[in-house]
Amino acid sequence: MEQSHSNIADASYKVLVLGETCVGKTALINCLVGREFRSSMLPTIGVDFVKKTFNVDGARIQLAVWDTAGQERFRSITKMQYRGAQGIVLVYDVTNPSTFTHLSYWMNSINNEISHSHNHLEPVPIVLIGNKIDLKDRIKVSTSKGKKLASREMAFEFFETSAKTGENVQLVFERLAYHITDICNPQLMSQYYPNLTIPEEITKAELNDSPPFKVKDDKIRSFCLPHVFFNFHTREVIIHLFVNMRNTWSGIFARLTLVVSLMLTVVVVVVVVVVVVVVVVVVVVVAAAAAVVAAASP
Question: Which spans are transmembrane here (predicted)?
Fold first, then answer.
């Protein structure tokens, strides 16, 4: 599988890169598109993405790879991007065990958000990667732990990578492009290689070795369409965010209802306090007046 330098793709797919902050998501994406590695980078704010085209068994497959923020305060924005995602790269830092432990949050988030996304579907290929293996003297999460987690969570594949040296970075996305195409549009590969067949025993072995991640809702069925992307980066971000916001009106309405309810509660409390204060003032004034009258009486 080689990278394609053609500007025309047979299909385009949306890929999310997820994981805790500072695991190297942005560095991995920069490495993917040939940008210079920087050891010190600011955390991603919101979302950003790049495009990369691969040759998958003769088909030109373009991945729109979305870089997401791992910080908790940006997770509502990150969750918006799950809609329409057709592949996921889940990243942890092999030198930081807490980023490995917190993968449970991301797996639950993937399962919940994608299973409730009406335009998407199962299965969604997930590639689990342990990043920063160039820091050999600081590794605290073993390869065996990564493989075990990938097997338990039914990730399609597991890799260890280095955004600094580039080790396995291209391979991760090449393999993900293959898995997405195989699920969403297998006829693309067959049209280039119509006589290509895979022996049944190999197919069974692959399924046993790396079973697909499936969302909980078994009623949802796979339906993937090539994404259409515009030429301007800013327009793409705005349009994707607008589409996602359009599909979350129910959540926005619920939040507005809660805010209005809280405001009404505050207003009622303020009114009650004012009434109590007025009553107290009136009582005090009346009592004072009565005392003055009593004192003035012979």
Answer: 262-295
Question: Which residues lie closer than 8 Å to 106 by C-beta, 6 or more apart?
Answer: 18, 19, 90
CATH architecture, domain 11-191? 3-Layer(aba) Sandwich (3.40)
Q: Quick one: which of 2, 8, 5, 56 has its CA closest to 188? A: 56
Q: Using alpha carbons only, what angle is made at residue 141 by residues 152 and 87, rounded to the nearest 5 degrees?
A: 50
CA distances from 10 to 6, 56, 187, 189, 192 (A): 10, 10, 11, 10, 11
In whole angstroms, what is the distance from residue 49 CA to residue 34 CA? 14
The Cα–Cα gap between 5 and 55 comes to 9
First CA to last CA distance, the chain: 112
């950003």: which residue's tokens? 48
DSSP label at residue 40: S
Pairing of strands 126-131, 157-160: parallel
Higher pLDDT, 140 or 114: 140
Please state, in angstroms and rounded to a whole number, the distance separating the CA atoms of residues 224 and 290: 84
The beta strands (E) that lie in the chain are given as 11-18, 47-56, 59-68, 87-93, 126-131, 157-160
* Domain spans of the chain, in order of start: 11-191, 252-297
pLDDT at position 205 is 43
* Burial bucket for residue 50 (CB in 10 Å: 0-12, 13-18, 19+): middle
At residue 233 the predicted structure's pLDDT band, cuts being 50, 70 and 90, is very low
